[in-house]
Write a structure and sequence with these properties.
Number of strands: 2
Largest sheet: 2 strands, antiparallel
Shape: globular
Helix content: 40-55%
Order of helices and strands: HEHHHE
Strand order of the largest sheet: 1-2
Amino acid sequence: MSELTRDEVVAVVHPVDDATVAEIIATGATRTDLAMACAFVAQEAHTHEGREVPVGPMGQVISILERVGARPLRGSPLGEAGSTLE
């Protein structure tokens, strides 16, 4: 298990401040947990399925991302096909 770094969190979550980065790192989440949490939040934002949030570090990261309104980046900071519109 490896700890997340600030740069790893900032690379996949936007907008995010230092306090939120620290909170995410403090969950003990791994890179895999962060990736899965970002995928969960992105899918939920797109489909609005209302799925139950998993338990553990991944679930804690999901809750943080949803609470602060952070949007996981998908590939390009400009979104799919270079557009920021959804």
